[in-house]
Amino acid sequence: MIKFTINDQPVEAQAGWTVLETALHHGIHIPTLCHHEAVEPSGSCRLCVVELKEGDWSKVVISCMYPVQEGLNVYTESERVKNVRRWILEMLLAECPASTEIQDLAREYGVTSTRFAIHNPEEDCMLCGLCVRVCREVVGVSAISTVGRGVNKIVGAPYSEPSKDCVACGSCVTVCPTGAMRKRLDAVRGEPKVRMARSAV
Questions:
Q1: 108-136 pLDDT tens trace
Q2: pLDDT, tens digit, for every residue of 23-80?
Q3: Beta strands in 33-186 (DSSP E)
Q4: Which of 67, 83, 109, 131 is the most buried (most CB within 10 A)?
Q5: CATH 3.30.70 in the chain, residues?
Q6: DSSP conformational letter for 57
Q7: Counting beta carbons within 10 angstroms of the beta carbon of residue 140, is it exposed (0 to 12), middle (13 to 18) or buried (19 or more)?
Q8: Measuring CA to CA, which residue among 44, 62, 67, 48 is closest to residue 130?
Q9: What is the dihedral of CA 130, 133, 134, 140, to 10 degrees?
Q10: For the whole model, what pTM was predicted?
């Protein structure tokens, strides 16, 4: 077992665990949006930042991808961490201003507005890619992808055509941290194979 501290509390972790996995195992809260235990971490939301300290030295890292090491000193709610999270939440408010989940989380950190440009006031997708990853890694069909680039980037079916590969399992809706996939599912899935099979009988 690897021994280190989180918020000055001694913890133990298995080799191969990340800081976030260790914190979750020990009941220590670290906010995150794009993380789900069923898929590999991507670090796309950056909200799970923590601070590593050693004397006068410190750095901020994303806990979902940072591997545990013997003797680490991890802090999950330091002033530096809170400041970084506030910046991240401001950016998320600009990217998906219509998401009530993002709004609620931002308020927890005292963020009620954003200084960044809002391109679409109705947007509620943060483009974390969690729906894409669960479709590929868990369901195994890759019926969802990111389409376009820059401010025009969206989540949808490959080539912007309803996917015949979708099995209408709803996994993407279940893992979506902002609820955006609820209204996108019909556009992505097209005619589910289950329906087609029934209509053929």
A1: 999 999 999 999 999 999 999 999 999 99
A2: 999 999 999 999 999 999 999 999 999 999 988 899 999 999 999 999 999 999 999 9
A3: 49-54, 57-62, 73-75, 145-147, 154-156
A4: 131
A5: 130-200
A6: E
A7: exposed
A8: 44
A9: 160
A10: 0.85
DSSP string across 149-184: SGGG-EEESGGGS--TT-----HHHHH-SSSTHHHH
Cβ atoms of 41 and 65 closer than 8 Å: yes
Q: Residue 67 has what DSSP assignment?
A: B
Q: What CATH number belongs to 2-78?
A: 3.10.20.740
CATH topology of domain 130-200: Alpha-Beta Plaits (3.30.70)
pLDDT at residue 153 in the model: 78
CA 147 from chain centre, in angstroms, equals: 18
What pLDDT is recorded for position 26? 97
pLDDT of residue 155: 83
> 16: how many CB neighbours lie within 10 A of its CB?
9
Give the number of other Cβ atoms within 10 Å of residue 173's Cβ.
16
